[in-house]
Design a protein that fits this description.
With about 200 residues, the protein is mostly beta strands. The protein is built from 3 helices and 12 strands, in the order αββββββββββαββα.
């Protein structure tokens, strides 16, 4: 058989059963459960959301939360795919990444926000709409629709998704709720009772 892509040359075609595809390579949205404390901003009003790592670990800050284990067991090579589930008004505070981030509305209406200098701008994504936010731009998003359980897909690119770089105002407000991040970008939870319940 002719092989066009040299990365496949001399490699056997993998054989995979239906059972293996289902157990290791698939995730069904109706059964997925994630975490409501994956990031620094999630205790702040307006930033409550559920984070569901589908494949790849993305930029998750709460490394102790087993609910953030990717639902698809096979490895992600150069990307991470995350579902965000939120009620109306829920979303993410201003942050940025050193990699691409693409948002796709799966269910509901979402606003993708960003800072142009210090002015907040936004566009609206309806079901199926896509927005790719340039590297380094401070961005956020929120559910602005009326559908319960709205769902946004976030795709982070690059071989190393890195960590979240929060806008300074977010860091200051999050500290008041007992959340901060260490020098490696991992979540630090000051409330030990809550911390023990999550791990």
């Amino acid at each position: 058989m002719p092989v066009v892509d040299p990365r496949l040359r001399d490699k056997p075609v993998p054989k995979i059963s239906v059972e293996k595809m289902e157990s290791d390579c698939a995730a069904h949205v109706k059964t997925l459960k994630g975490s409501d404390l994956a990031f620094l901003d999630q205790r702040l009003p307006g930033y409550k959301r559920e984070i569901i790592n589908i494949i790849g670990t993305g930029v998750t800050e709460n490394t102790a939360d087993r609910a953030l284990t990717p639902k698809i067991k096979t490895s992600a090579h150069g990307f991470a795919l995350v579902y965000v589930r939120a009620e109306k008004g829920g979303g993410a505070a201003m942050h940025r990444h050193a990699t691409e981030e693409v948002f796709i509305s799966i269910k509901g209406q979402w606003a993708v926000t960003w800072l142009e200098n210090e002015t907040e701008r936004h566009i609206i994504l309806n079901c199926g709409d896509v927005c790719s936010v340039p590297i380094g731009v401070f961005r956020g998003f929120r559910n602005v629709g009326d559908e319960a359980d709205s769902l946004l897909l976030a795709l982070v690119g690059g071989p190393d998704p890195g960590k979240v770089d929060w806008h300074p105002t977010v860091i200051d407000e999050a500290r008041k709720t007992g959340l901060s991040v260490d020098d490696d970008g991992n979540l630090v939870i000051a409330d030990t009772a809550l911390k023990e319940g999550r791990s």
